[in-house]
Please model this.
Amino acid sequence: MEEITYMHPDDLKAVWICHECHKVFVFHSDVDDHKGLSGHKMVEKVTLISPETFA
Ligand SMILES: [Zn+2]
Model:
């Protein structure tokens, strides 16, 4: 399965954590989807110090 993802400038510099279900989101668009689908609002943005964490 191939999927082309267009990245937001913040992508890979930060992640978002939902404190209501403890999911972690790498893409900001996923956060918007999650808020819309789940109704969860306690999503915190966490800035990454080292992008290599995801390498
Ligand atoms: Zn959630």
Notes: The radius of gyration is 12 Å. The pocket of zinc ion is lined by residues 18, 20-21, 23, 34, 38, 40 (CB under 6 Å).
